[in-house]
Design goal:
The structure holds two protein chains of two kinds.
Chain A: H1 18-43
Chain B: H1 5-30, E1 59-64, E2 67-75, E3 78-80, E4 84-87, E5 90-98, E6 103-107, E7 113-116, E8 122-128, E9 132-137, E10 150-156
Classes of the chains: A mainly alpha, B alpha+beta.
Chain lengths: ~50, ~170
């Protein structure tokens, strides 16, 4: 028993990897938040800071 | 070559992220005045520290209003002077060198952290805005007593400061 699966060819622009885009955007948001915490709070907030 | 629109989006975002990372560091270095440990000082003879005007007598010296210089010698397994005493609200430039092997000079829990290399003078400036006590640790393995090598920085209220001499 075999089922015929309908085939449809689409070109490059027709498929939008929305899930991938969403994952990457979430990842970038996480990176930005972590960077702010690491640099401004953990590093600059960690007095004494070398100023000369 | 054809690039999908979504791919263009995340390529551009990745580049913007890199630019943002670099600009924050640049902002810290310019607007916030964050500096690196300096290696500007000339090299000295680690065997002749006793004849060096700065290190023969490790001490804290006042060089201006609220400005001090601390000359610190690290050796197996002590820091001199100990404690390093400075007044509250002062700007202190540390000159740290070693008499024997490589040591570290880390004011614990802060960004004030330098290597101490024999023959080199590690130089850095920090501001002590509040009275209190900081620990100082050697963070470069320097021998079998490395784990007990510690010192301290005591920040005393301005009116109690007696010049830092023990």
């Amino acid at each position: 028993m075999s089922t015929e699966t309908p085939k449809r060819e689409i070109d490059h622009e027709e498929f939008d990897p929305k899930g991938t885009l969403a994952l990457i955007l979430i990842y970038f948001v996480i990176l930005s938040i972590l960077w702010v915490f690491m640099y401004f709070i953990e590093f600059l907030g960690n007095d004494l800071t070398v100023i000369g | 070559m054809h690039i999908h629109n979504y791919e263009k989006i995340w390529l551009v975002l990745a580049m913007l992220l890199i630019v943002a990372f670099i600009s924050t560091v640049a902002y810290g270095a310019t607007a916030m005045g964050v500096d690196m440990i300096s290696d500007d000082e000339d090299t000295i003879d680690p065997g002749a520290l006793d004849e060096d005007p700065r290190f023969a007598d490790p001490r804290v010296e006042q060089v201006g209003e609220d400005e001090y210089e601390a000359y610190v010698v690290a050796q197996q397994y002590v820091f001199e002077p100990d404690p390093i005493e400075v007044p509250e609200g002062s700007t202190v430039t540390f000159y740290v060198t070693s008499r024997d092997v490589i040591h570290g000079f880390e004011i614990v829990g802060t960004n004030a952290n330098a290597m101490v290399v024999p023959g080199e003078v590690s130089t850095f400036t920090v501001e002590f805005s509040e009275a209190g006590e900081y620990g100082v640790l050697c963070n470069e393995y320097c021998g079998d007593g490395h784990h007990v090598m510690e010192g301290s920085v005591t920040v005393v209220p301005e009116e109690e400061y007696d010049g830092g001499d023990e």
